[in-house]
Amino acid sequence: MIDLGSALPTFLSRLKRLPDGAVLTLLTFKRDRGVAVRKNGEGFEIREFGYRNETVEEDAAGLKKRLKAVLKREFPRSNKVHLLEDREATRRA
């Protein structure tokens, strides 16, 4: 678990090191809402679930802005969030 204030910089730095196809997920304390980002070459697939259920494609330039908006929407009262990394998703896909 990490602080929500440091979640965005931590999330972005880990995304840079992920192999293609791997998934990085941020979840609320109860794990009922969150955002999952799959790295696809130079782009990213962002899946938001909780208040809004949608999947969008984003390039590296717009990723930070999109994640900032998603964090405000999905984690309005959270102080701590779960950060999960799934490198095995590359082998299952």
Précis, in short:
With 93 residues, the chain is α+β, with helices and mostly antiparallel strands.
Overall morphology: globular
Strand content: 35-45%
Largest beta-sheet details: 6 strands, antiparallel
Class inferred from helices and paired strands: alpha+beta
The amount of helix comes to 25-40%
β-strand number: 6
Order of helices and strands: EHEEEEHEH
Roughly how many Å is the radius of gyration?
12 Å
How many individual helices?
Answer: 3
Mean pLDDT: 90
Q: Note the gap between the termini.
A: 27 Å
Word description of this protein:
It is a single chain. By secondary structure, the protein is of the alpha+beta class. It is built from three helices and six strands; from the N terminus they run βαββββαβα. The protein has a six-stranded antiparallel beta sheet with strand order 1-6-2-3-4-5, covered by helices on one side. The mean pLDDT is 90.
Keywords for this structure?
single chain, 93 residues, alpha+beta, six-stranded antiparallel beta sheet, 3 helices, 6 strands, 32% helix, globular
Question: How do the strands and helices of this protein lay out in sequence?
Answer:
Blueprint: E1 2-3, H1 7-17, E2 23-27, E3 34-40, E4 43-49, E5 54-59, H2 60-74, E6 80-86, H3 89-92
Antiparallel strand pairs: 1-6, 2-3, 2-6, 3-4, 4-5
